[in-house]
Amino acid sequence: MADPAQPFSLKPYLKKTKIWKSIFRHDFSDTPRTRLLRIFGNVFLHLQPVRVAKDAIRVTYTWGLGGISFFVFLVLCVTGILLMFYYRPASMLAFQDIKDLSFAVTLGPLLRNMHRWAAHLMVVVVIAHMVRVFLTGAYKPPREYNWVIGVILLVMTLFLSYTGYLLPWDQLALWAVTVGAQMAANAPILGNEGPFRLPFITTANDARFSLIGGTVIGDATLIRFYVLHCVAVPFLFCIFLCVHLWRVRKDSFSKQTGEKVDVWPHLVSREFLAALLVLIILFVWSLLMNAPLEAEANLNVTPNPSKAPWYFVGLQELLVYFDPWLAGVVLPTLIVVGLMAIPYVDTNPKGVGYWTKMRRKSFGPFSIWVPQERPFAVSVFMLGTILWFVLIFIGTYCRGPNWEWYWPWEPWSYRRLTKLTLKNIPNLWGGLLVMSYVAMGTPLPAKAKELIAAKAGPKTPGRLFALLHLGLGMMMSVCLFVPLLISKDADYPLRSRYTTLFEALGRSINAPVMSNLYHLFQQAGPAVGSAVVGVMILVVGLILGRIGIAFGKMKNRMFDELGLVKYAIVISLLLMMMGVLGKIMLRLLFGIKYLISLPMFNFNI
Amino acid sequence: MKRLLFVLLTGLLAVLFVITMWRDTAREWTSYQGRFLKTLHTDERRNVSGGIKQIIVKDLNRVDRCTTCHLAIDKPQLALGEEPFTAHPGKFLEWHPVEKFGCTVCHGGQGLATEVKAAHGDVKHWEDPLRRGNVVQASCRQCHGDLKAIEAHVPALIKGREVFLAKGCYGCHTIKDFGQTVSQDLTEIGSKSYQLMEADFEMMSPPHDRIRWLETKLRHPRMLNPGVRPEHLPPGEEEIFPSAMPHFGLNQDDIESVTTYLLSLTASNLPASYVMPAPPEPTVTYASDLEHGTAVFEKYGCAACHGIGGVGGRHNWNGGLGEETPPLLYVKAYYGNHVEELKTLIRSGRQPVPRMNAGRPNPGLYMPAWKDRISEPDLDALVVYLFSLADRLPQPQTPQAATDQAQTSPSQPTAPVDSSPIN
Questions:
Q1: Residue numbers in A near B10 (CB within 8 A)
Q2: A492: containing domain
Q3: Which residue from B130, B177, B321, B391 could staple onto B120, CB 3.0 to 4.6 Å apart?
């Protein structure tokens, strides 16, 4: 019975009703008990632990990147579902529906812009999250498996974004997807244009066909991508996301220092603020910039240049230096597999739960920042990441019509032509070059060292090792310059004037090393020129050998620590990455197209 | 601190949401509708509702939202003096009911758009710009095959076609299955994508649209394709000549008319119920072989390169004969006794034509093969016409005549007189 002296108030009354009590199981006063109950009693908040180490939730430790990517995914789900109300996945209707969204539907432009920009943001944030996890060593035991799930989620994020790219059915969509689908056609064995194609593979049953559901992109592709984008991939994504989040809980946070604090309110409030901030960024972005929409898709009109979605432009840029099967299939596969392998080959227990300190280290006249712990792992990973984004930058901002180089401030011209006559190095020389490069990865195990030292004196193993590297460096240099000077120009065997690759390249290419050497030959005479080339062979060989020796000690230590299998994986991934850089140099400085070329198998490197 | 941040961010988000809602409700067209509704009396307003208006024409696969702003286009009683509230001029809407035709099928532009610039097609990636002024006559030809029947309404279109014929454009360009393939096929030039029509906007000031491009091309044929000089090319690369299209010296009126005609050449695929086919061409009889030959010369566009009346003088980069196309006045002198040789030359053409400088690329203009196009009787008549051109040369002067001429009219030029009936 209520006290008649007290005035009636709604809140206490409501709190006593059965409905209230059945929904809210506890009161909301700020006591330690309710703080726990809030997490226990809520299915969504229950995803998080009740108490967490204070240092683990510092903004400067995680930057909230995992949570933010989850939130952006939620934004994408909401805007995506709303967009689905207005979109019909048929080539006759799709483009018109997008036009309707931008001109007639209430809040249509906002929905579309937000979905588009959130998709871009998600790719960026997911990659940043991965970099953060790597740099703080959060993938190390017992979290190896969750790192692999994370890589799968990254791949799915890219695939979600890629399948969504086609849906507006404009020129941008059609040709970006064409570029991507062409990579499937170049898959080895299963692609119609790839190397070592199986005999029964045609355009009508290869990997590209199964991706786009036909031999050309059309209605079948649109419905396929629509279902993948809206149902199939999100479904799988959610499953992997559940596992990912659950494993974070089970494996605990990577940082465990500092006193324990209650997740409510310390973590929940931060998450809320981060979500607010992201939403504000997305709102402002969507208000200021409209999502692009070009002319309706037309298979007969190929824009020049046609660019892939920005996160694949790095691979497209690699097409300049490699054949499509390498740039579009093998390299991305290796990147993904390599990423997944990281926690299993990295046995270094250090560096978990904190950002590695940097210190200045001088290399001769230069002094650079070097991570104090895990210098090798951090440098290699960051080199790869930066290389990836540099390629994306070049492809997006520095490439114009015919994929010619334009500075970002230069206007494009469809009239501009650059003459580039690229040449192959004969297979024998090129093969030797590649083999010497691969042999650079040879370590000198401690056992072998002892054995040699016991037989031939304590200094011999070191000398032998140095000699091996110098020899390999010299071999690579010779295999590059000698065939240039003596090999016949395979493209014009009958033309007597351009007898060697050197002359052919020097006359017609703007690769700096080749054209300068050629001019030197012309002006100073062959004697001086040959001397210069001889010196160059020597210098380049010595430099390459010196680099090999510099990494020699590290290689030996790595081999002894990792064992043969892990060492082989690490060194081949490393050589592959540096090889990409090397091939880019060969192409830009020397105008060399292939080192090994077997046209009958469609196999060129 | 955290609480303050929370309040601030939430407030900011709320403000952003309000801004978005406001921007969404205050779209461009709402101000036009507001202005229009204000001018109406209460009783007039009863029949006019607000909101986006659209005309859905199923047959033509079009949705036109133009009437969202052009509110009085089919209501002359409500029309105002200023755009966009005027009524449609003439009786065109009576003949072409709006529900059956919509707007953009005739006027071009982007029917789905509800913003002025986008709707008028003055934006990137919309290749069907609004057809302003006389240019709109181009659209009539989509359905009206018989232009004679609507002559009074399409003067620019008819004139454009006449100029196109008179200047000999068919000599290089094809429309459907008639004409030569020396240059671009113009069959769908009014609707082809910019890329396929090789519309290069680099040398042109904006606006960059089809109509402006065609006008510029007709005014200064070489301006849009100035070629690439050897000094701007990497060593060893062949230079590219400017556009081979001759400069026809068209005046503004001609340019607009020809543009109108070219815009009428579209890939439109309208339902049969809309189309009124053209009557069959009447067969022409000629009084003489000479008249027949003149007609052949004009019909196949020989004049584009050889000049009206065969006087030659078109510039042809690196062509023999001083970089000019050959005049036809000397045909009789060369081939008078070798008619069969002349016919063979016309039948199989001359490709490539002789070069002035063997080190430079082939000239852009060349004599195409005519054997599948000009029939044998036509060819015989053409030869008669070509031989007749010799009469236009100044007669070999006797000393007496020369002195007479010098005395009577010293300033009279002796150049051949252009007597083409079309001019």
A1: 276
A2: 427-604
A3: B130
